[in-house]
Design brief:
homodimer, 384 residues, alpha/beta, 434 Repressor (Amino-terminal Domain), Rossmann fold, 4 domains, six-stranded mixed β-sheet, elongated, disordered N terminus, DNA-binding
Chain lengths: 384, 384
DNA sequence: CTGAAAGCGCTAACAA
DNA sequence: TTGTTAGCGCTTTCAG
């Protein structure tokens, strides 16, 4: 029963060709050609959105959904014929398992969360990449959160991960994190946590870091061997373990060569660019200006170098500089930056490896601490 | 009633000290010491892991779970007293909503997926960061996938996102992607897709890119105005739209100033470091060596510069270089690299904005194309 | 204003 | 080997 779209009558309608594949009609009363409105399409649309479920497959094959479920996995108790039929029908109907449902029933999301302070230097993305590779290989997704170096955001991130029922968490803390309840919450619910890079002393969880102490020791030793004697250190924020370790390496290198440790040659930097410039200025303005600086990381070292260049201080002859972490910029700057290389992607891979083991082993897992080796890369900025 | 773990008798058991904090027993019959198996611990474990649900809250308050659900949201039909009580109890029991369950019932995961070719230059992480900020603000999580420039991986990524029922997808394709069924699959299920940077011509979806043509035009024009006349172009892979657009800008700039377009001054680079070096060599080895090169991006430009330095070619006097994308390294290299800046974070933000609108509007959404402006940053590498 | 009940898509005993 | 059933935690009609 076709109604005219204008007069709603049915008596004066006749077919009149097709337009864009659709039947066209003609109403003699209104003298109007029309095609049917799109309402049916709405259903098609819904249909369009519908993703096939195991029930769809079951119905199509006239079997139960459990059988379908079994066929879709490597379950032994399944007739190979049935299995083949299911697999084919799944293909035909373009079946995509609903991982949300699966996660719900299994209480396992196959997702791990990563919280990093930021995203812009090459450091954290590389770690994430490493972690992601390992995770993907094991069938895990990764949800990434940035705390933006804000404690509050970090707490929010943790809640999001919790609400998403991640199976495990990789985290590098903000420089201002001093309370850890939000992280302990994971443990409380049996969700393993692995710290990397910026770890938490007071928690008994797995940790992955590089041998900051040794790296710093080697770096400063290198400077000493190159004849520098008045060596300063731009350190990181005191709250971070890596700061203390690198500082320790610096101090012990001096001690090893019987050089005095001078308080005023150590300045702490919060790692922001602005603060890095300030620290650089502070050191370069000293009456007894240091003849070399070991920097907590490359971005800081680069700021220092730029600042020194501005003042026409010759590098490396008047000022030796060593950084930490081997960022790409350090390679192209002139003079090229001597730096302590960390196996960045390895940090991510190791952390993810440990986390996956922790997830697998559940309660039986014993936290471990992994310390990765650093390598001194000697370039121009420290040779004299 | 303690049973021996071997003979299951109870009559011959006596306590016998403790081991690792647990009571130890002795069975005279078996002459065996034992501690109780771990079963009770299993319960404790479950208890530990158990996350409180709305049912827990309902039971504690002796109301129905529907009421709890209503109280937890801004539902009008709810007694403020009840609501307060629920909220307090939720707090007390440390309730964390299970987003998996919610997603399942709402058929909405509040998650968007991002597929990027790689993760290492500062470019994609920055975009992701921008997108993530926008998404987070709207309550969306982000699942990130790397295709590693591999078509096969990209397809796998797409399936993962589909299986995770993401509400929308942001994608920048691999340089080898030529079929798009895996992306069309999203559309088929009503999941909006927004391309960015490396977009797909043949799909009618939203796209965010920068004005590559104009950026390239300005770059080459700048070189011409600085007196360079034999200007080459290291282009990207022909499959990418951005390659064609930047090439178009290059060509039209030449035309505008009546300079000849010479085929052999255009070399295509697949964007890998190795290939970049090769392209650089090819150009620098020409008998009629170009006096300037416009490069498809900064990493390529930097490889070219390093290669030129090796040969003691003076930059910018003997060779002008302009890059594209303003990577950090370009700022510190000497001479500093002239480049076309793209509003990278904006790309991510815009793409996410568009995607969220598309998600919100559903069927009514009309795909749009956004082209962001580029800025020429003039530094030392192109001034003569 | 509140409760009961159905159902999102899936897995996993338990029967048959 | 397969089907039946219950339930993961939540939202959402539909009745009170």
């Amino acid at each position: 029963m076709i109604k005219c779209t204008r007069c709603s009558q049915v008596h004066a309608i006749s077919k009149s060709g097709t337009v864009r594949g659709k039947q066209r009609y003609y109403c003699k009363d209104c003298n109007m050609y029309f095609t049917l409105p799109e309402e049916p399409a709405a259903e098609i649309r819904q249909h369009k959105k519908h993703m096939t479920t195991i029930v769809d497959i079951a119905k199509a094959l006239n079997i139960s959904k459990s059988t379908v479920s079994r066929a879709l996995h490597e379950h032994s108790d399944i007739n190979p014929q049935t299995k083949a039929a299911v697999l084919e029908m799944a293909q035909q109907l373009d079946y995509q398992p609903n991982l949300l449902a699966k996660s719900l029933v299994k209480s396992k999301s196959n997702t791990i969360g990563i919280i990093v302070p930021e995203f812009l230097t090459y450091f954290f993305p590389t770690i994430i990449m490493g972690a992601q590779q390992v995770a993907a290989q094991a069938g895990y997704n990764v949800i990434i959160c940035q705390s933006q170096e804000s404690y509050k955001t970090e707490v929010a991130n943790a809640n999001i991960l919790l609400a998403n029922r991640v199976d495990g968490v990789l985290i590098s803390m903000t420089r201002e994190t001093k309370k850890f309840d939000h992280i302990k919450a994971f443990e409380k619910h049996g969700i393993p946590v692995v710290f990397f890079n910026r770890v938490c002393d007071e928690m008994n969880t797995s940790k992955v870091l590089v041998n900051d102490y040794e790296g710093a020791l080697k770096a400063v030793e290198h400077l000493i061997k190159n004849g520098y004697r008045n060596i300063a250190h731009i350190a990181g924020p005191p709250s971070l373990l890596l700061t203390r370790n690198r500082l320790g390496g610096y101090r012990d290198a001096l001690k090893k060569y019987n050089l005095p440790f001078k308080e005023d040659l150590v300045v702490h930097c919060n790692l922001s660019k602005k603060d890095a410039v300030q620290c650089a200025e502070q050191l370069l303005n000293m009456k007894n200006r240091p003849d070399a600086v070991f920097c907590v990381n490359d971005p800081v070292a680069i700021q220092l170098m730029l600042e020194a260049k501005k003042r026409k201080i010759k590098i490396p002859s008047e000022l030796g500089i060593v950084g930490f972490s081997n960022e790409p910029s350090g390679e192209v700057i002139e003079p090229a930056l001597t730096t302590v290389q960390q196996p960045v992607a390895d940090i991510g891979r190791s952390a993810a490896d440990i986390l996956l083991t922790a997830i697998k082993q559940g309660e039986d897992y014993v936290p471990e601490m992994k310390s990765l080796k650093t390598t001194l890369i000697v370039r121009e900025s420290s040779k004299r």
